[in-house]
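Subject: Flagellar basal-body rod protein FlgC structure
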Amino acid sequence: MDFNQSLKIAASGLKAQSGRMRVIAENLANAESTARAPGQDPYRRKVVTFASKFDRELQAQTVQVGKVERDRTDFKSRYEPGHPAADASGYVKYPNVDTLVETADMREAQRSYEANLNVVTATRRMILKTLEILRA
């Protein structure tokens, strides 16, 4: 594998993880949002899937963000009769976002991002060392 291939494969991983982190940030931003009117559903959690793609130019597998799907788990509900989004029985629906799960997913995405970034950094160092050897 040459340097160019490793850089492009790591770049695909960086792009995929940044897309994942963007969706997680959206989930966290909407964790406490409610529906705009009684009877409507609040924000539904989104989940990123990854897809493997064979790059003919590189002759290697790369990763990309696949479908962004909606999590079908039930919404949370709290008894808040004075809330504008409360239904007839006084319950308000809240998104199915668990901030603890989102934080763990964000940490995992961050670690994967850092691993790909380390590949880029190591490859750049190897390129520089190769150039130094060729100059000597």
